[in-house]
């Protein structure tokens, strides 16, 4: 289980305030598929809320502890039927560079917009002047602007 300092936990609680629950745990309880979905949510978001439908407080606490132990996540907050979990995000892009300044292959992993479906994985070849933005888009470097005055002085 991941340990957090009180200051880190407070910052994560603040960040989690506006989040909506990503995973809902129903009457069947904590199944293998539910744990898998929670793991996927933690991989793509890092900080998630989980809603547990059930009135037994001890069962919710046991689920919370089990999830944190199995997924190596940090418990952030448990308010009523909401559980807030944190685990550092998995690195979204892996760069495998080929020789020199030529093309390089990049794997881009984008989370689904709703957060409930599988992430999309695409492999792309990038040129030397291209980069991948944090959102997974490809951008080209713009040529550096040159001063009109300096170019006029340099030509004389």
Structure described in brief:
This protein has four helices and nine strands.
Task: Annotate the secondary structure layout.
Elements: H1 6-16, E1 21-25, H2 32-45, E2 47-52, H3 57-71, E3 74-79, E4 82-86, E5 93-97, E6 104-110, E7 120-126, E8 130-132, E9 138-140, H4 148-155
- Topology as a string of helices (H) and strands (E): HEHEHEEEEEEEH
CATH-level-4 superfamily name of the largest domain: YhbY-like
Overall geometry comes to elongated
Binned, the helix content reads 25-40%
Major sheet description = 4 strands, mixed
Per DSSP E runs of 2 or more residues, the count of β-strands stands at 9
Report the CATH architecture of the largest domain.
Answer: 2-Layer Sandwich
Tell me the quaternary state: single chain
Number of helices: 4
The fraction of residues in strands falls at 25-35%
Low-pLDDT segments, ≥5 res: none
Class inferred from helices and paired strands: alpha+beta
Number of domains: 2
What is the CATH third-level topology name of the largest domain? Translation Initiation Factor IF3
- Radius of gyration over all CA atoms, rounded: 22 Å
N→C terminal distance: 69 Å
Strand order of the largest sheet: 1-2-4-3
Return the CATH class of the largest domain.
Alpha Beta
Q: What average pLDDT do the residues reach? A: 84
């Amino acid at each position: 289980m991941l340990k957090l300092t009180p200051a880190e936990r407070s910052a994560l609680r603040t960040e989690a305030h506006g989040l909506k629950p990503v995973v809902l745990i129903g009457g069947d309880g904590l199944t293998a598929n539910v744990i898998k979905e929670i793991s996927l949510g933690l991989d793509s978001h890092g900080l998630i809320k989980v809603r547990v439908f059930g009135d037994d407080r001890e069962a919710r606490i046991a689920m919370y502890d089990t999830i944190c132990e199995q997924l190596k996540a940090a418990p952030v907050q448990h308010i009523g039927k909401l559980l807030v979990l944190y685990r550092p995000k998995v690195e979204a892009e892996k760069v495998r560079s080929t020789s020199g300044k030529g093309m390089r292959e990049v794997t881009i992993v984008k989370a689904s917009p709703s957060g409930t479906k599988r992430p999309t994985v695409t492999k792309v070849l990038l040129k030397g002047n291209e980069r991948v933005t944090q959102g997974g888009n490809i951008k080209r470097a713009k040529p550096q602007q040159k001063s009109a005055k300096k170019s006029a002085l340099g030509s004389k």
